[in-house]
Write a structure and sequence with these properties.
single chain, Arc Repressor Mutant, subunit A, 2 domains, 9-stranded mixed sheet, 40% helix, binds iron/sulfur cluster
């Protein structure tokens, strides 16, 4: 049974300078058309409470209260009190009214796009919130009864220094939150940064920023449980489903779904989507693809891969299937193999792409 459901809400109030996601500026007519197709997509999947439900975007909190309520109502039967029900939000679109609505319909986790606390960096990114908005949103959510809070931070920004990044990290750990996800800035061709010809941050500085985060967050009790995810005690159960390579539904424009040995990417074209032509691209996954992807996702976790799970899924041991790659990386001290686990060392995590190259199908 598939136990995770992702829904993509492709609307934002403003468009950030670095963004290349599937999103458009919010407009009530577009939202109405989008919701009609989304409701059909929801109805087409078997109704049972999911273990995890994730409303991502875009900015789900940008929807008007009535639109959000209609979306929440359509999800009844797909979650129960044990479901981790996450909604992404921007700090300046969280109001007391929306937070209460979220609680009434079962949302129990919020992932907030904070990015940085530095006013100049926020302006550069074209983010519309301030550091004060972030603190207000966190306290509004706690008051409404949502205590499982995560924030996203971004590093490697143009003009960002190691000092300003450390200040952002120290501000983050002073907040009443339980989870932090890090992203390094990629200059995407179709983003405003890409069009303006902005350059990628220097690789050494970017690496120094990452290790600074591991140090500062670790000292403050945020353990790194995945290469870019840190928590005091509440890992993202939804993201763990991806890293454990479980199947999941993905609904909404641009969403990815993995079911029945196929990866289905929904169309990113909102007009097509509104006409019910939801499928963009389908990739059939071979056994080799799935075995590699299982390793690729699992090695992101600091606890690594449960080798018995690999065997129960593929009916062979990963130690046999990938004997050469494992031997080679253990010898280089990039991987550690114990009775039932294969995990990266710190060095292996830092060089994960190189490690994975040796696991690729057909790599001699
Ligand atoms: S980064 Fe997030 S909030 Fe900003 S435009 Fe993209 S999807 Fe919207």
């Amino acid at each position: 049974m598939i136990e995770s459901l992702y829904l993509h809400v492709p609307f934002c109030e403003d468009i950030c300078a670095y963004c290349d996601f599937t999103r458009v500026k919010i407009h009530p007519i577009l939202v109405e058309k989008y919701l009609l197709t989304l409701f059909d997509e929801i109805k087409a999947i078997p109704k049972h409470p999911m273990k995890t439900l994730y409303l991502g975007g875009g900015t789900p909190s940008a929807l008007a209260t009535e639109e959000l309520e209609a979306l929440f109502s359509s999800l009844e039967g797909y979650h129960d009190p044990s479901t981790e029900f996450t909604m992404e939000a921007n700090p300046d679109s969280i109001t007391g009214e929306k937070a209460e609505l979220m609680v009434r319909y079962g949302v129990n986790r919020v992932s907030m796009g904070v990015q940085t606390f530095d006013a100049d960096e926020l302006a550069l990114l074209n983010r519309t919130h301030t550091a004060q908005d972030i603190e207000n949103a966190i306290s509004t959510l706690h008051q409404a009864g949502i205590h499982n809070l995560s924030i996203d931070l971004i590093y490697g920004l143009p003009r960002q220094t190691l000092e300003s990044w450390e200040a952002t990290l120290r501000h983050a750990v002073s907040l009443d939150i339980s989870h932090i996800s890090l992203y390094s800035l990629t200059i995407e061709e179709h983003s405003e940064f890409g069009r303006k010809g902005m350059k990628q941050c220097d690789g050494d500085l970017e690496a120094a920023m990452y290790f600074k985060a591991v140090q500062v967050l670790g000292e403050q009790g945020f353990d790194r449980y995945e290469i870019s995810s840190f928590t005091k005690d509440k890992p993202s159960r939804h993201n763990l489903a991806y890293w454990h390579y479980d199947e999941f539904y993905g609904l909404g424009p641009g969403a990815t779904q993995m079911t029945d040995h196929r990866r289905i990417v929904k169309t990113t074209n909102l007009d097509r989507y509104a006409k019910g032509k939801t499928v963009g691209e389908i990739t059939e996954l071979s056994v080799d693809d799935e075995q590699f992807e299982f390793i690729m996702m699992g090695l992101r976790l600091t606890e690594g891969i449960d080798l018995d799970r690999f065997e129960s899924r593929f009916h062979l041991r990963a130690e046999e299937r990938f004997a050469q790659a494992i031997l080679e990386n253990v010898a280089k001290k990039r991987l550690v193999l114990t009775t039932n686990r294969l995990a990266c060392t710190d060095e292996g995590l830092a060089m994960l792409n190189d490690v994975l190259l040796s696991f690729l199908p057909d790599t001699p």
